[in-house]
What we know:
By secondary structure, the chain is α/β, with parallel strands linked by helices. Helices cover 39% and strands 19% of the residues. It has helices spanning 19-31, 53-65, 71-87, 95-106, 111-130, 137-140, 151-162, 190-200, 234-242, 253-258, 319-329, 350-353, 357-368, 395-405, 431-450; strands at residues 7-11, 35-40, 133-134, 168-169, 174-176, 182-184, 205-210, 231-233, 263-267, 276-279, 296-309, 343-349, 372-385, 412-415, 421-427. An eight-stranded mixed β-sheet has the order 3-4-2-1-7-9-10-8, sandwiched between helices. The relative contact order is 0.09. Aspartic acid binds at residues 13, 41-42, 52, 54, 118, 172-173, 187-191. Aspartic acid is lined by residues 13, 41-42, 52, 54, 118, 172-173, 187-191.
Amino acid sequence: MNQVDLKIVKFGGSSLADANQFRKVKEIVTAEKARRFVVPSAPGKRSSNDIKVTDMLYTCQKLASEGADISEPFGQIRARYLEIANELSLSYDPSAALDEVYENLRNGATKDYAASRGEYLNGLLLSSYLGYQFVDAADVVRFDANGVLMMDETMTLMREKLGKLECAVIPGFYGADENGNVITFSRGGSDVTGSLVARAVSADIYENWTDVSGVLVADPRIVANAVPINTITYEELRELSYMGASVLHEDAIFPVRAADIPINIRNTNAPDAPGTMIVASDSAASDQFTGYTITGIAGRKGFCAINIQKAMMNAEIGFCRKVLSVLEELNISFEHMPSGIDTMSIILPEDAIHGREKTVLSKIRKAVSPDRLEIEHGISLLAVVGRGMRRTRGTAARIFAALAHARINVKMIDQGSSELNIIIGLLDGDFEEAVRRIYDVFVSSTITEQS
Ligand code: ASP
Protein backbone atom coordinates (compact mmCIF):
# COMPACT_ATOMS: atom_id res chain seq x y z
CA MET A 1 0.00 0.00 0.00
CA ASN A 2 1.07 3.59 -0.62
CA GLN A 3 2.33 5.65 2.24
CA VAL A 4 -0.56 6.65 4.48
CA ASP A 5 -0.38 10.14 5.93
CA LEU A 6 -3.78 10.68 7.40
CA LYS A 7 -6.23 8.31 8.99
CA ILE A 8 -9.52 8.95 10.70
CA VAL A 9 -10.04 6.53 13.55
CA LYS A 10 -13.53 5.96 14.88
CA PHE A 11 -14.07 3.81 17.97
CA GLY A 12 -17.42 2.19 18.72
CA GLY A 13 -19.05 1.99 22.14
CA SER A 14 -17.61 -1.37 23.18
CA SER A 15 -14.11 -0.08 22.32
CA LEU A 16 -14.58 2.70 24.90
CA ALA A 17 -16.77 0.97 27.46
CA ASP A 18 -14.33 1.23 30.38
CA ALA A 19 -10.83 2.34 31.38
CA ASN A 20 -9.22 -0.82 30.10
CA GLN A 21 -10.73 -0.30 26.66
CA PHE A 22 -9.51 3.33 26.74
CA ARG A 23 -5.98 1.98 27.27
CA LYS A 24 -6.25 -0.23 24.17
CA VAL A 25 -7.55 2.74 22.20
CA LYS A 26 -4.60 4.89 23.22
CA GLU A 27 -2.18 2.20 22.16
CA ILE A 28 -3.83 1.96 18.77
CA VAL A 29 -3.95 5.72 18.22
CA THR A 30 -0.36 6.34 19.28
CA ALA A 31 0.97 3.38 17.28
CA GLU A 32 0.73 5.42 14.05
CA LYS A 33 1.37 9.11 13.51
CA ALA A 34 -1.24 9.12 10.74
CA ARG A 35 -4.04 8.55 13.27
CA ARG A 36 -4.65 12.24 13.84
CA PHE A 37 -8.41 12.61 14.10
CA VAL A 38 -10.34 10.42 16.50
CA VAL A 39 -14.12 10.01 16.63
CA PRO A 40 -15.48 8.29 19.75
CA SER A 41 -18.88 6.74 20.48
CA ALA A 42 -20.43 6.82 23.94
CA PRO A 43 -19.41 4.07 26.40
CA GLY A 44 -21.13 0.87 25.27
CA LYS A 45 -21.79 -2.43 26.99
CA ARG A 46 -19.06 -3.88 29.20
CA SER A 47 -20.78 -7.27 29.16
CA SER A 48 -23.80 -8.70 27.40
CA ASN A 49 -26.26 -7.68 30.14
CA ASP A 50 -24.85 -4.17 30.59
CA ILE A 51 -26.64 -1.02 29.36
CA LYS A 52 -25.17 1.45 26.86
CA VAL A 53 -24.77 5.00 28.19
CA THR A 54 -26.83 6.28 25.22
CA ASP A 55 -29.77 4.14 26.36
CA MET A 56 -29.34 5.34 29.94
CA LEU A 57 -29.46 8.94 28.71
CA TYR A 58 -32.63 8.32 26.73
CA THR A 59 -34.18 6.85 29.89
CA CYS A 60 -33.20 9.89 31.97
CA GLN A 61 -34.65 12.27 29.39
CA LYS A 62 -37.93 10.33 29.29
CA LEU A 63 -38.21 10.22 33.08
CA ALA A 64 -37.42 13.92 33.36
CA SER A 65 -40.05 14.75 30.73
CA GLU A 66 -42.59 12.88 32.88
CA GLY A 67 -41.58 14.94 35.88
CA ALA A 68 -39.79 12.03 37.63
CA ASP A 69 -36.65 12.32 39.73
CA ILE A 70 -33.56 11.30 37.71
CA SER A 71 -30.94 11.50 40.43
CA GLU A 72 -30.60 7.71 40.67
CA PRO A 73 -30.36 6.83 36.93
CA PHE A 74 -28.16 9.84 36.24
CA GLY A 75 -25.99 8.77 39.17
CA GLN A 76 -25.19 5.58 37.27
CA ILE A 77 -24.12 7.56 34.20
CA ARG A 78 -22.00 9.84 36.36
CA ALA A 79 -20.38 6.82 37.99
CA ARG A 80 -19.37 5.36 34.64
CA TYR A 81 -17.53 8.49 33.51
CA LEU A 82 -15.96 9.15 36.90
CA GLU A 83 -14.72 5.57 37.08
CA ILE A 84 -13.00 5.90 33.70
CA ALA A 85 -11.48 9.28 34.64
CA ASN A 86 -10.25 7.98 38.01
CA GLU A 87 -8.85 4.72 36.74
CA LEU A 88 -6.92 6.53 34.04
CA SER A 89 -5.81 9.24 36.53
CA LEU A 90 -6.90 11.95 34.11
CA SER A 91 -5.98 15.52 34.92
CA TYR A 92 -9.38 16.51 33.52
CA ASP A 93 -12.27 16.23 36.02
CA PRO A 94 -15.61 15.67 34.21
CA SER A 95 -17.72 16.64 37.27
CA ALA A 96 -18.64 20.13 36.05
CA ALA A 97 -19.62 18.86 32.59
CA LEU A 98 -21.69 16.09 34.21
CA ASP A 99 -23.43 18.63 36.49
CA GLU A 100 -24.33 20.74 33.49
CA VAL A 101 -25.81 17.78 31.61
CA TYR A 102 -27.76 16.77 34.74
CA GLU A 103 -29.23 20.26 35.13
CA ASN A 104 -30.15 20.49 31.46
CA LEU A 105 -31.88 17.11 31.60
CA ARG A 106 -33.86 18.18 34.67
CA ASN A 107 -34.86 21.35 32.88
CA GLY A 108 -36.46 19.64 29.90
CA ALA A 109 -33.58 19.02 27.46
CA THR A 110 -34.56 17.39 24.16
CA LYS A 111 -34.09 13.71 23.36
CA ASP A 112 -31.33 14.51 20.88
CA TYR A 113 -29.46 16.68 23.34
CA ALA A 114 -29.70 13.94 25.99
CA ALA A 115 -28.46 11.17 23.70
CA SER A 116 -25.62 13.26 22.32
CA ARG A 117 -24.07 13.79 25.74
CA GLY A 118 -22.80 10.20 25.77
CA GLU A 119 -20.38 11.01 22.95
CA TYR A 120 -19.74 14.56 24.18
CA LEU A 121 -18.59 13.44 27.63
CA ASN A 122 -16.61 10.50 26.25
CA GLY A 123 -14.92 12.87 23.81
CA LEU A 124 -13.86 15.12 26.68
CA LEU A 125 -12.31 12.18 28.54
CA LEU A 126 -10.59 10.80 25.46
CA SER A 127 -9.15 14.15 24.40
CA SER A 128 -7.64 14.58 27.84
CA TYR A 129 -6.28 11.02 27.83
CA LEU A 130 -4.73 11.31 24.36
CA GLY A 131 -3.64 14.91 24.78
CA TYR A 132 -5.60 15.78 21.60
CA GLN A 133 -7.65 18.95 21.15
CA PHE A 134 -11.41 18.56 21.76
CA VAL A 135 -13.64 19.80 18.92
CA ASP A 136 -17.35 19.92 19.77
CA ALA A 137 -19.29 18.24 16.96
CA ALA A 138 -22.02 20.88 17.43
CA ASP A 139 -19.58 23.40 15.93
CA VAL A 140 -18.68 21.37 12.84
CA VAL A 141 -21.64 19.13 11.93
CA ARG A 142 -24.55 21.21 10.63
CA PHE A 143 -28.21 20.16 10.27
CA ASP A 144 -31.05 22.14 8.70
CA ALA A 145 -34.27 23.07 10.51
CA ASN A 146 -35.78 19.69 9.52
CA GLY A 147 -32.91 17.73 11.00
CA VAL A 148 -31.35 16.89 7.63
CA LEU A 149 -27.56 16.95 7.41
CA MET A 150 -26.17 19.92 5.45
CA MET A 151 -23.26 18.34 3.67
CA ASP A 152 -21.61 21.40 2.12
CA GLU A 153 -21.84 23.50 5.30
CA THR A 154 -20.50 20.59 7.35
CA MET A 155 -17.54 20.15 5.01
CA THR A 156 -16.74 23.86 5.15
CA LEU A 157 -16.97 24.03 8.94
CA MET A 158 -14.88 20.90 9.40
CA ARG A 159 -12.20 22.04 6.96
CA GLU A 160 -11.94 25.44 8.61
CA LYS A 161 -11.62 23.96 12.08
CA LEU A 162 -9.63 20.78 11.52
CA GLY A 163 -7.36 22.28 8.88
CA LYS A 164 -5.65 24.25 11.64
CA LEU A 165 -5.19 21.32 13.99
CA GLU A 166 -2.56 18.63 14.13
CA CYS A 167 -4.69 16.20 16.16
CA ALA A 168 -8.25 16.29 17.52
CA VAL A 169 -11.06 14.30 19.11
CA ILE A 170 -14.47 14.97 17.54
CA PRO A 171 -17.34 13.18 19.31
CA GLY A 172 -19.57 11.12 17.03
CA PHE A 173 -23.34 10.92 16.57
CA TYR A 174 -24.41 14.57 16.76
CA GLY A 175 -24.21 18.08 15.40
CA ALA A 176 -26.39 21.15 15.68
CA ASP A 177 -28.69 23.35 13.62
CA GLU A 178 -28.02 27.01 12.89
CA ASN A 179 -29.51 28.03 16.23
CA GLY A 180 -27.24 25.71 18.17
CA ASN A 181 -29.93 23.08 18.93
CA VAL A 182 -28.24 19.71 19.18
CA ILE A 183 -29.39 17.11 16.65
CA THR A 184 -28.30 13.48 16.42
CA PHE A 185 -28.07 11.05 13.56
CA SER A 186 -30.07 7.84 13.93
CA ARG A 187 -28.67 5.13 16.21
CA GLY A 188 -25.15 4.03 15.41
CA GLY A 189 -24.54 7.44 13.85
CA SER A 190 -20.97 7.91 15.08
CA ASP A 191 -20.03 5.93 11.98
CA VAL A 192 -21.45 8.80 9.94
CA THR A 193 -19.42 11.41 11.82
CA GLY A 194 -16.25 9.41 11.17
CA SER A 195 -17.07 9.27 7.50
CA LEU A 196 -17.75 13.02 7.32
CA VAL A 197 -14.47 13.86 9.02
CA ALA A 198 -12.62 11.48 6.68
CA ARG A 199 -14.09 13.24 3.68
CA ALA A 200 -13.57 16.75 5.02
CA VAL A 201 -9.85 16.26 5.60
CA SER A 202 -9.35 13.97 2.57
CA ALA A 203 -8.10 11.09 4.68
CA ASP A 204 -6.22 8.21 3.10
CA ILE A 205 -8.23 5.68 5.14
CA TYR A 206 -11.21 5.75 7.45
CA GLU A 207 -10.54 3.18 10.18
CA ASN A 208 -13.66 2.03 12.00
CA TRP A 209 -12.66 0.15 15.15
CA THR A 210 -15.19 -2.21 16.68
CA ASP A 211 -15.28 -5.55 18.49
CA VAL A 212 -15.07 -7.98 15.55
CA SER A 213 -12.15 -8.53 13.21
CA GLY A 214 -13.99 -7.19 10.19
CA VAL A 215 -17.13 -7.96 8.24
CA LEU A 216 -17.72 -11.69 8.53
CA VAL A 217 -18.68 -13.93 5.61
CA ALA A 218 -21.77 -15.07 7.52
CA ASP A 219 -23.59 -14.25 10.75
CA PRO A 220 -21.49 -15.79 13.56
CA ARG A 221 -24.68 -16.67 15.43
CA ILE A 222 -25.42 -19.08 12.60
CA VAL A 223 -21.92 -20.09 11.51
CA ALA A 224 -19.62 -20.38 14.50
CA ASN A 225 -16.12 -19.06 13.68
CA ALA A 226 -17.23 -17.45 10.43
CA VAL A 227 -14.14 -15.95 8.80
CA PRO A 228 -13.74 -12.22 8.07
CA ILE A 229 -13.92 -10.89 4.53
CA ASN A 230 -10.60 -9.30 3.57
CA THR A 231 -11.87 -6.96 0.81
CA ILE A 232 -15.43 -6.00 0.00
CA THR A 233 -16.79 -3.36 -2.36
CA TYR A 234 -19.26 -0.70 -1.29
CA GLU A 235 -21.90 -2.30 -3.54
CA GLU A 236 -21.44 -5.72 -1.97
CA LEU A 237 -21.58 -4.23 1.49
CA ARG A 238 -24.82 -2.49 0.64
CA GLU A 239 -26.35 -5.77 -0.55
CA LEU A 240 -25.26 -7.58 2.61
CA SER A 241 -26.35 -4.76 4.93
CA TYR A 242 -29.71 -4.53 3.23
CA MET A 243 -30.18 -8.23 3.83
CA GLY A 244 -29.46 -7.91 7.51
CA ALA A 245 -25.68 -7.94 8.07
CA SER A 246 -25.09 -5.18 10.59
CA VAL A 247 -21.74 -3.61 9.91
CA LEU A 248 -21.84 0.14 9.50
CA HIS A 249 -24.52 2.80 9.64
CA GLU A 250 -25.97 2.96 6.12
CA ASP A 251 -25.33 6.71 5.80
CA ALA A 252 -21.64 6.25 6.59
CA ILE A 253 -20.88 4.88 3.15
CA PHE A 254 -21.84 7.76 0.89
CA PRO A 255 -19.46 10.53 2.11
CA VAL A 256 -16.32 8.40 1.79
CA ARG A 257 -17.43 6.51 -1.27
CA ALA A 258 -17.88 9.76 -3.17
CA ALA A 259 -14.33 10.75 -2.23
CA ASP A 260 -12.85 7.30 -2.91
CA ILE A 261 -11.64 6.80 0.67
CA PRO A 262 -11.52 3.14 1.74
CA ILE A 263 -12.99 2.08 5.08
CA ASN A 264 -11.05 -0.40 7.15
CA ILE A 265 -13.11 -2.26 9.78
CA ARG A 266 -10.78 -3.24 12.64
CA ASN A 267 -10.99 -4.95 16.02
CA THR A 268 -9.88 -2.96 19.09
CA ASN A 269 -9.47 -6.25 20.96
CA ALA A 270 -7.30 -7.79 18.21
CA PRO A 271 -5.43 -4.81 16.73
CA ASP A 272 -3.02 -6.94 14.72
CA ALA A 273 -5.81 -8.47 12.62
CA PRO A 274 -6.00 -6.65 9.25
CA GLY A 275 -9.81 -6.50 9.35
CA THR A 276 -11.92 -5.80 6.29
CA MET A 277 -11.17 -3.22 3.62
CA ILE A 278 -14.25 -1.65 2.03
CA VAL A 279 -13.24 -0.29 -1.37
CA ALA A 280 -14.67 1.07 -4.61
CA SER A 281 -15.53 -1.58 -7.19
CA ASP A 282 -13.32 0.06 -9.81
CA SER A 283 -10.28 0.27 -7.55
CA ALA A 284 -7.27 -1.97 -7.92
CA ALA A 285 -7.89 -3.30 -4.41
CA SER A 286 -11.24 -4.70 -5.47
CA ASP A 287 -9.48 -6.97 -7.98
CA GLN A 288 -7.67 -8.75 -5.21
CA PHE A 289 -8.64 -12.33 -4.68
CA THR A 290 -11.32 -12.51 -1.99
CA GLY A 291 -10.32 -16.04 -1.17
CA TYR A 292 -13.66 -17.56 -2.13
CA THR A 293 -16.00 -17.11 -5.08
CA ILE A 294 -18.53 -15.49 -2.83
CA THR A 295 -17.94 -12.52 -0.59
CA GLY A 296 -20.70 -12.96 1.96
CA ILE A 297 -24.02 -14.50 2.89
CA ALA A 298 -26.80 -12.66 4.68
CA GLY A 299 -30.52 -12.94 5.00
CA ARG A 300 -33.66 -12.10 6.86
CA LYS A 301 -36.73 -13.88 8.07
CA GLY A 302 -40.18 -12.38 8.29
CA PHE A 303 -41.39 -12.26 4.69
CA CYS A 304 -44.58 -13.51 3.08
CA ALA A 305 -45.66 -14.20 -0.49
CA ILE A 306 -48.89 -13.17 -2.15
CA ASN A 307 -49.43 -15.94 -4.71
CA ILE A 308 -51.69 -15.13 -7.63
CA GLN A 309 -52.82 -17.55 -10.32
CA LYS A 310 -54.97 -16.91 -13.36
CA ALA A 311 -55.31 -18.79 -16.63
CA MET A 312 -53.89 -16.83 -19.57
CA MET A 313 -52.32 -14.27 -17.24
CA ASN A 314 -49.50 -13.86 -19.74
CA ALA A 315 -51.89 -12.57 -22.39
CA GLU A 316 -53.69 -10.12 -20.16
CA ILE A 317 -52.16 -6.72 -20.82
CA GLY A 318 -51.67 -4.65 -17.67
CA PHE A 319 -52.13 -7.54 -15.23
CA CYS A 320 -48.97 -6.78 -13.20
CA ARG A 321 -49.64 -3.08 -13.23
CA LYS A 322 -53.11 -3.58 -11.78
CA VAL A 323 -51.76 -5.77 -8.97
CA LEU A 324 -48.92 -3.38 -8.21
CA SER A 325 -51.21 -0.37 -8.19
CA VAL A 326 -53.12 -2.00 -5.32
CA LEU A 327 -49.87 -2.07 -3.38
CA GLU A 328 -49.10 1.50 -4.37
CA GLU A 329 -52.52 2.67 -3.28
CA LEU A 330 -51.98 1.03 0.12
CA ASN A 331 -48.44 2.40 0.33
CA ILE A 332 -46.87 -1.06 0.53
CA SER A 333 -43.43 -1.68 -0.91
CA PHE A 334 -42.42 -5.16 -2.04
CA GLU A 335 -39.08 -6.96 -2.37
CA HIS A 336 -39.40 -9.37 -5.29
CA MET A 337 -41.87 -10.42 -7.92
CA PRO A 338 -41.08 -13.84 -9.39
CA SER A 339 -43.53 -14.85 -12.13
CA GLY A 340 -44.52 -17.77 -14.34
CA ILE A 341 -46.84 -17.91 -17.37
CA ASP A 342 -50.05 -18.00 -15.37
CA THR A 343 -48.73 -17.17 -11.91
CA MET A 344 -47.05 -14.34 -10.14
CA SER A 345 -45.90 -13.96 -6.56
CA ILE A 346 -45.08 -10.87 -4.64
CA ILE A 347 -42.63 -11.24 -1.80
CA LEU A 348 -42.87 -8.59 0.86
CA PRO A 349 -42.13 -8.13 4.56
CA GLU A 350 -44.82 -9.56 6.87
CA ASP A 351 -45.12 -6.32 8.78
CA ALA A 352 -45.94 -4.40 5.59
CA ILE A 353 -49.33 -6.10 5.37
CA HIS A 354 -49.85 -7.11 8.98
CA GLY A 355 -53.46 -6.34 9.98
CA ARG A 356 -54.31 -5.39 6.36
CA GLU A 357 -54.29 -8.80 4.72
CA LYS A 358 -58.01 -8.90 4.03
CA THR A 359 -57.94 -5.46 2.45
CA VAL A 360 -54.96 -6.36 0.26
CA LEU A 361 -56.56 -9.60 -0.93
CA SER A 362 -59.96 -8.12 -1.63
CA LYS A 363 -58.48 -5.22 -3.59
CA ILE A 364 -56.33 -7.58 -5.68
CA ARG A 365 -59.39 -9.80 -6.26
CA LYS A 366 -61.36 -6.83 -7.45
CA ALA A 367 -58.53 -5.54 -9.64
CA VAL A 368 -57.65 -8.74 -11.56
CA SER A 369 -60.24 -11.48 -10.71
CA PRO A 370 -57.65 -14.23 -10.16
CA ASP A 371 -58.49 -17.96 -10.21
CA ARG A 372 -56.51 -18.46 -7.02
CA LEU A 373 -55.16 -16.01 -4.50
CA GLU A 374 -53.42 -16.77 -1.21
CA ILE A 375 -50.86 -15.45 1.22
CA GLU A 376 -48.05 -17.75 2.27
CA HIS A 377 -46.31 -16.88 5.52
CA GLY A 378 -42.96 -17.77 7.09
CA ILE A 379 -40.59 -17.00 4.24
CA SER A 380 -36.92 -16.06 4.55
CA LEU A 381 -34.77 -14.38 1.97
CA LEU A 382 -31.12 -15.30 1.74
CA ALA A 383 -28.60 -13.35 -0.33
CA VAL A 384 -25.36 -14.83 -1.60
CA VAL A 385 -23.23 -11.84 -2.57
CA GLY A 386 -19.97 -11.76 -4.47
CA ARG A 387 -18.31 -9.76 -7.22
CA GLY A 388 -16.43 -12.93 -8.09
CA MET A 389 -19.63 -14.64 -9.27
CA ARG A 390 -19.63 -12.70 -12.54
CA ARG A 391 -16.46 -14.36 -13.75
CA THR A 392 -16.95 -17.78 -12.21
CA ARG A 393 -19.13 -20.41 -13.79
CA GLY A 394 -21.11 -22.89 -11.78
CA THR A 395 -21.72 -20.73 -8.72
CA ALA A 396 -25.49 -21.15 -8.88
CA ALA A 397 -25.08 -24.87 -9.45
CA ARG A 398 -22.93 -25.18 -6.32
CA ILE A 399 -25.41 -23.21 -4.23
CA PHE A 400 -28.45 -25.20 -5.31
CA ALA A 401 -26.68 -28.55 -5.16
CA ALA A 402 -25.76 -27.76 -1.54
CA LEU A 403 -29.37 -26.91 -0.73
CA ALA A 404 -30.66 -30.00 -2.55
CA HIS A 405 -28.33 -32.25 -0.57
CA ALA A 406 -29.73 -30.77 2.61
CA ARG A 407 -33.27 -31.40 1.25
CA ILE A 408 -34.02 -27.70 1.45
CA ASN A 409 -36.85 -26.55 -0.77
CA VAL A 410 -36.16 -23.36 -2.73
CA LYS A 411 -39.25 -21.21 -3.14
CA MET A 412 -37.80 -18.41 -5.21
CA ILE A 413 -34.61 -17.49 -7.04
CA ASP A 414 -33.63 -14.02 -8.19
CA GLN A 415 -30.33 -13.06 -9.75
CA GLY A 416 -29.87 -9.33 -10.33
CA SER A 417 -28.57 -8.11 -13.66
CA SER A 418 -25.33 -7.02 -12.00
CA GLU A 419 -24.65 -10.69 -11.16
CA LEU A 420 -23.51 -9.44 -7.80
CA ASN A 421 -25.99 -11.48 -5.84
CA ILE A 422 -28.32 -14.42 -5.93
CA ILE A 423 -31.38 -14.11 -3.72
CA ILE A 424 -33.09 -17.26 -2.58
CA GLY A 425 -36.52 -17.56 -0.95
CA LEU A 426 -36.87 -20.38 1.61
CA LEU A 427 -39.09 -21.43 4.46
CA ASP A 428 -38.08 -19.85 7.78
CA GLY A 429 -37.34 -23.29 9.26
CA ASP A 430 -34.67 -23.94 6.59
CA PHE A 431 -32.92 -20.59 6.85
CA GLU A 432 -30.05 -21.31 9.25
CA GLU A 433 -29.23 -24.67 7.68
CA ALA A 434 -29.18 -23.09 4.22
CA VAL A 435 -26.68 -20.44 5.37
CA ARG A 436 -24.45 -23.13 6.89
CA ARG A 437 -24.59 -25.33 3.79
CA ILE A 438 -23.66 -22.49 1.44
CA TYR A 439 -20.89 -21.36 3.76
CA ASP A 440 -19.51 -24.91 3.86
CA VAL A 441 -19.46 -25.27 0.08
CA PHE A 442 -17.68 -21.98 -0.62
CA VAL A 443 -15.67 -21.27 2.50
CA SER A 444 -15.06 -24.32 4.70
CA SER A 445 -14.19 -26.54 1.76
CA THR A 446 -11.78 -23.92 0.34
CA ILE A 447 -10.08 -23.56 3.72
CA THR A 448 -9.66 -27.32 3.93
CA GLU A 449 -8.24 -27.51 0.39
CA GLN A 450 -5.74 -24.74 1.16
CA SER A 451 -4.49 -26.30 4.38
N1 ASP B 1 -24.04 6.03 20.92
C1 ASP B 1 -24.93 6.04 19.81
C2 ASP B 1 -25.75 4.77 19.80
O1 ASP B 1 -25.68 3.98 20.72
C3 ASP B 1 -24.24 6.28 18.52
C4 ASP B 1 -23.11 5.33 18.18
O2 ASP B 1 -22.65 4.58 19.02
O3 ASP B 1 -22.69 5.32 17.03
O4 ASP B 1 -26.50 4.55 18.88
